[in-house]
Automatic annotation (TrEMBL):
Pfam families: Hist_deacetyl. The keyword Nucleus applies. The keyword Cell inner membrane does not apply. It is found in: Nucleus. This is Histone deacetylase 11.
Length: 346
């Protein structure tokens, strides 16, 4: 059951009240700021425990440092996020699910780092879940900025395996579902939202959440041979492109371009959420695809050119990517988008 299409009137009223009372939309973007969201609190570091998962849990900080070094923006021009509160999370998540995160064993299962189960939960909350809540707040804030500026980037987020009632795959909070619900509530002119998910993995979390909501169109291009292989969630994908292990640039890039333009012409979105995972990169131990660094940069250019060419706002989330080289590639992509006139200063 989708959380939007089938929710009761009482649930809808409660959700509207929670959004109205949230502080995540109360900020005004400075005229000197780029719509790029980041905070050092995104990075997960605790006694080396983070190294027990292939995910580079300080990728986000290195992306930001590269953008500073490349003079894309300065510290002062970066937008600082606000951590999503429990009330913000309850806009989508059930109370039983949030309560389950108070058990370290549950968080260990979601993050796929077994030793986390042995840590006191107050440590898990501070060192593991707070960074994810901060990134979730950043995604919601980036949604607002994308509508106002035409584009935005959260250097983090993209937790596409998490739905209202369950997490998984290092995704504890449903930031994509939350981002979209906030946009639909605050901007009445937006009635059609498209998710373009080009992470190597199937985006099963939001697909479950929006299963019955015709306002949301999902285009998902993923490796069918890897996690999560969620057959039920596939029913929530409007345009499904299943790839095989070892897919290369030559096959991948034309497919992206063809299906993206077809999806835009079919649905006519008024807002796009772009989940730009870099785990499609050759050598990624979890994505198992063979896309070159130049292919990743070109993929992002294709998406922004297609969406911005229609004057549609787009928000980009960095999502998966399990090699240290991905931080440099994400930064290179942002530079490419700037140099191609697809993003720019205030």
């Amino acid at each position: 059951m989708g959380i939007f299409g089938k929710e009761s009137r009482n649930d809808a009223r409660s959700s509207d009240t929670l959004i109205k009372n949230s502080s995540l939309y109360t900020f005004n973007l400075k005229t000197t700021s780029w719509p790029i969201v980041y905070d050092a609190g995104y990075n997960i570091t605790f006694m080396g425990v983070e190294k027990l998962h292939p995910f580079d849990s300080s990728k986000w900080g290195r992306v930001h440092n590269f953008l500073l070094d490349d003079k894309v923006l300065t510290e002062e021009e970066t937008v600082t996020p606000v951590e999503a509160t429990e009330e913000d999370l309850l806009v989508v998540h059930t109370q039983p699910y949030l309560n389950s995160l108070k058990w370290s064993a549950t968080v260990a299962q979601i993050t796929e780092v077994v030793p986390v189960a042995l840590l006191p939960n107050f440590v898990v909350q501070r060192k593991v879940l707070r960074p994810l809540r901060l990134q979730t707040g950043g995604s919601i804030m980036a949604g607002k900025m994308a509508v106002e500026r035409g584009w935005a980037l959260n250097i983090g987020g993209g937790f596409h395996h998490c739905s209202a009632e369950r997490g998984g795959g290092f995704c504890a909070y449903a930031d994509i579902t939350l981002l979209i619900k906030f946009v639909l509530h605050h901007f009445e002119q937006i009635k059609r939202v498209m998710i373009v998910d080009l992470d190597a993995h199937q985006g099963n979390g939001y697909a479950r959440d929006f299963m019955d909501d015709d306002r949301v169109y999902v285009m998902d291009v993923f490796n069918r041979n890897i996690y999560p292989q969620d057959g039920f969630a596939k029913a929530g994908i409007k345009r499904k492109v299943e790839l095989r292990c070892g897919t290369t640039d030559q096959e991948y890039l034309p497919l992206i371009k063809e299906h993206l333009y077809d999806a835009i012409n079919e649905f006519h979105p008024q807002f796009v959420v772009y989940n730009a995972g870099t785990d499609i990169l050759a050598g990624d131990c979890l994505g198992l695809m063979e896309i070159s660094p130049k292919g990743v940069v070109e993929r992002d250019r294709i998406v922004f050119a297609a969406v911005r060419g229609q004057n549609v706002p787009i928000v980009m989330l960095t999502s998966g990517g399990y090699q240290r080289s991905t931080a440099r590639i994400i930064a290179d992509s942002v530079v490419s988008l700037r140099d191609n006139g697809l993003i720019g200063p205030p």
